[in-house]
Amino acid sequence: MSLFQIAEPGEQKTKSACKGRVVGIDLGTTNSLVAVVRDGQPVCLPDETGGVLLPSVVRYQAGSAPVVGHIAKKRAHEAPHDTIASVKRFMGRSVADIVKEGTASRFGQYLFADPSLFPDSVVRFFVAGPNGRRPVTPLEVSAEILRVLRSRAVEALGDEPEGAVITVPAYFDDAQRQATRDAGRLAGLSVLRLLNEPTAAALAYGLDQNREGRFAVYDLGGGTFDVSILDLCDGIFTVMATCGDTALGGDDMDAAFSFLLLEKHPDGKRLASRLSEDAVLSRRLLDVAREAKHALTDGEKTTVSFEGATLSVSREEFEQAIQPVLERTAAPCRRAMKDAELTAKDLSGVILVGGATRVPAVRRFVESMFGQKPLCELDPEQVVALGAAVQADILAGDKNDALLIDVSPLSLGLELMGGIVEKLIPRNSRIPTGAKQVFTTYADGQTGFDLHVVQGERETASECRSLARFKLTGVPKMAAGMARLEVMFLIDENGLLQVGARELTSGRAAHIAVKPSYGLIDEQIEKMLLDSFEHAEDDLRKRVLLEQRIEAERILQALETALAQDGYLLSEEEMQPIVEARAALTAAKQGIDHRLIADCILALDVASKEFAQRRMNEQLNRAVAGKSVASVEKAVQFDENAVPKTVSLGE
Amino acid sequence: MAAVKASSSNSFFALFDLPERFRLDAAELETRYREKSRRWHPDRFSRAPASERAEVLQRATMLNEAYRTLRSDGKRAEYLLKLRGAELGEDAPKTALDPDFLMQILEWREELSDAVAERDVAKIAALKKIVESAHAQLTQQMADGFEHLEHGDATAISQLTTLYYMQRYHQRFSDEILVAEDTTAPRSAVL
C-alpha cells in the first residue's frame, strides 16, 4: 500500500490517505457502473435521476461534445453511424478480427476509417466531428464512458477518485486488457488494477455473505460470456479455472430473437434483405426485439409492432430462438470444470452475473447444467461493480485479510520455425507467473532475434492470437551457437505481459523493441492524453499536479517511517543520496511543475532502491528466522539482472 | 547479494518448507502456498514504488512457479530428477523405451482416433479409464523409485528417468483424450 511499509500479516496498517476515495468500475458492453465502499458496504453510485446504470452508448455530434448514456441510447436510431454501442466488442481488436468475427455487421451500423491510412491495425470508427467526419478508436470511445463515471464519483466523493479498479471479462486477451487500461488513463483515472469480472462477482458475494466453498460464476453479459470456478477459503479467493467466449452474449440472443420476429413478419423476406443497408431499420428491429425480450421475462406472451405489422410472440418461441446461444455456453463451462478438476456436486453455489441471466430460460439452463439452483441475491447487473469496489478497497489497504489469486485465461506461447507454437505458460496458471526460455544464435556475429508471442490453445501460430512481435538487439557478437540468450516472459497480476532478456555468457541485458500486434503504441496514447488535456473542460493539469503532490507526500512519509525503523541498515555514506533526493522532492512539491515532481519521485525511488531491497531481505530473514535462509534467496536471485520491460503501452 | 549455493537447500520445496521428496501432501502444499501468498502477492504492495513492486512481482512469480511445479506429479518428478543430477533431454530419452510400451501407446492412439471418427463417447470414456489406471500405476512405481533414491540407492535414477519419459507419453495422450472429449461432447451436457 505505501512505500517501505511491509506489514506483518494481520498487523494493523496505518490508515492511508486514500481511504474511501477509490472506486470500482464495471465497464460493460451494454451498461457501465461505478461503485464505492461506504461503511464497509459496497454501493453503486447513482446518476441525478437515481439510476445506477449508464448505458455504454456514445453519440458523436458535429458541433458539440459527445453525449453518453440514456439520451445517446434513446436517440440511437436518429444517427446510427455516429452512435457507438457495444464498443467493448471492438476493444483491442484489429480490422481483420472484426471482419473475421462478423462483429461489425452484427453489432452496429458503423462507418470505419480507412485502415490503410494508419500505421497500426487498430479499428477506428468514422464519426461526426467538428470538421466533417473524424476517426476515433474504441479506446477513446470507452474513455468517454469512463469520464462520465469519473465525474459521477467526483460528485459523490467530493473530490477526484485517487484510484480505480476496472473490470474486464476474464477471457480478455492482452490487447483487450491493454486497451481497457489505456482508456482508463485517457479518462484521467489512475488504474490500480484490472480485475476479472467473474472474480469481482465472487468477491461481492463472498465478502457480503461470508461464504466458503467452491463456486461457479456464470457471467452472460451483453457481449461476452465467461465462466469461472473459484475457491473461497479463509478470506483467500483462488480462481481455479476460467473459460469463456469473447464474442458471445446477450446481444446474440437479441439478434437470434430478431430473426424470429422477421420470420413472423408478413413482409419479412423483403425487410431482411434491406437490413444490411438500412441502418435505422436494423437498429429499430433490435430495439423491438429487446423490448419483447424484457416483456417475456415475466409474461408468457407479448405483441410487438414493427413495420406496419403486429406480431404476437410467446415465451416458448423466444426460448426456442435463443436455445442455440445458450448451448454455446456449455462447452466453456465443461472446460472450466475440467481444468478445475471438479464435478458439479463439488460446487457450493452457482453465481449469476449479467443482465442476460435475468431471462428465465437462462436460469433453467444453468440449473440443469450444474444440477443446482443458481444464487441471485445480488442484482446480476450490479454485482461486478460492487465486487470491483471491494477489490479497490482491499488495495487501498482497508481490508487486509482478503486476498485474491487469479489465473491467466489463455496459454502463452512462442512461434517456432514452421509456425508451430511452443507453450510457455499453460492456461489457468496462477498469476503473476513467468517462464524462461534460452535461445541461441544460428549465425556467426548475429546480434539480434525476432520473436513472436501468441496467446491461445491451438497448435499453430496462425490459429492463435498474435500478441506482440519482439526484436531483441544488442546481443554481443559471438560465433554461432555461442551466445545464449535468456528471455523471460512474465504475466503480472493484471494479466498483462512483460518481457525481459539477457545474454547469459556476458550477463548483459539485451534490448527489446516491442511492436504490439494489435493496439496503439505509447506515443499515440501520449498524444491522445495531451489532446484531452488541451480540450478538457476542467483543468486537468491542476489535477495532475495535485495527484503528484499527494503521491510525493505519501512517499516522503513512508520514507520517514522506514528510516526511523530500519535506518541502521544504511551507512552514512549510503544515506547521503537518499537524503539529497528527499530534499529535492520536498522542494519540488512546493512548486507547480508536476513533471519535476514526478522526476523527483522517480529519483528518490532509484536512490532508495538498495535500501528497499535490504529492508525486504531483512523482513524476509525475520520471517524465516531459524529456517534455511538460502531457501528464500533463490527468489531474490530470480533474474535480478533482466529488468522486465513492459510490452504495455501504459505507464 | 550472496551467490546462490548449488545445493538443493534453495529448492522449490524449501520455499514452502516442505521435505524434498516425491511423496507430497497436496493439502499441506496448498496451505503453505496460501500463507506465502498472503505475504508476497503484488496486491499487498499495490501502492509501493516501482522498484519494490518489481521485486515483489519476481517473488510472487517464483512462488507460483514453484507451486505449479510441485503440484503436478510429472513436473515434480522432473524437478527432483534434475536436482539429483539426472540429464533429461527436451524430447526423447537417451535410452530407448520398452517397445511393448510404445506399441501400447500406438494402439491407444489408433483406438482414440477411431472413437473420434465414430463420435463414440462411451469408447472415449472407457479409454480414458484405462489410461488413468495405467497412469496411477506408473505414479506408484515412481513413488517407490524415489523412495529408494531417497534412501541412498543412486541406481534408482536411471529407472526413474525411464518412468519419467513413460509418464510423459501418458500425459500427452491424456491431453489428446481431453481434446477428443471436447470435440465429441454433446452440446448441452450436465457437468
Structure, explained:
Chain A has 651 residues and is an alpha+beta fold. In chain A, 38% of the residues lie in helices and 24% in strands. Chain A contains 19 helices and 29 strands. In chain A, the strands form eight sheets. In chain A, strands 1, 2, 3, 4, 10 and 11 form a six-stranded mixed beta sheet that branches. The longest helix of chain A has 27 residues, at 540-566. Chain A starts with 21 loop residues before the first strand and ends in a 5-residue tail after the last strand. Chain B has 191 residues and is mostly helical. Chain B is globular. At the A-B interface, helix 11, helix 12, strand 18, strand 22 and helix 17 of A face helix 2, helix 3 and helix 7 of B.
Summarize the structure.
The complex is a heterodimer of chains A (651) and B (191). With 651 residues, chain A is α+β, with helices and mostly antiparallel strands. Chain A has 19 helices and 29 strands.
> Which spans of chain A of ≥5 residues are poorly predicted at pLDDT below 50?
1-18, 626-651
Number of H/I helices of chain B: 7
* First-last Cα distance of chain B: 52 Å
Structural class of chain B: mainly alpha
**Proportion in helices of chain B:** 55-70%
Sequence-ordered SSE layout with sheet pairings:
The complex is a heterodimer of chains A (651) and B (191).
Chain A: E1 22-27, E2 31-38, E3 41-44, E4 54-55, E5 58-59, E6 67-68, H1 70-74, E7 83-84, H2 95-101, H3 103-107, E8 125-129, E9 132-136, H4 138-157, E10 163-168, H5 174-186, E11 191-196, H6 197-209, E12 213-220, E13 225-233, E14 236-245, H7 250-264, H8 268-275, H9 279-298, E15 301-306, E16 309-314, H10 315-327, H11 330-339, E17 349-353, H12 360-370, H13 383-395, E18 403-405, E19 407-408, E20 412-415, E21 421-425, E22 429-430, E23 433-440, E24 449-455, E25 465-473, E26 484-491, E27 497-503, E28 511-516, H14 522-535, H15 540-566, H16 572-590, H17 594-607, H18 609-623, H19 630-637, E29 645-646
Parallel strand pairs in A: 1-10, 10-11, 12-17, 14-18
Antiparallel strand pairs in A: 1-2, 2-3, 2-4, 5-6, 5-7, 8-9, 12-13, 13-14, 15-16, 19-22, 20-21, 20-24, 23-26, 24-25, 25-28, 26-27, 27-29
Chain B: H1 12-15, H2 26-40, H3 50-71, H4 73-83, H5 99-117, H6 121-150, H7 156-184
Helix pairs in contact in B: 2-3, 3-4, 4-7, 5-6, 5-7, 6-7
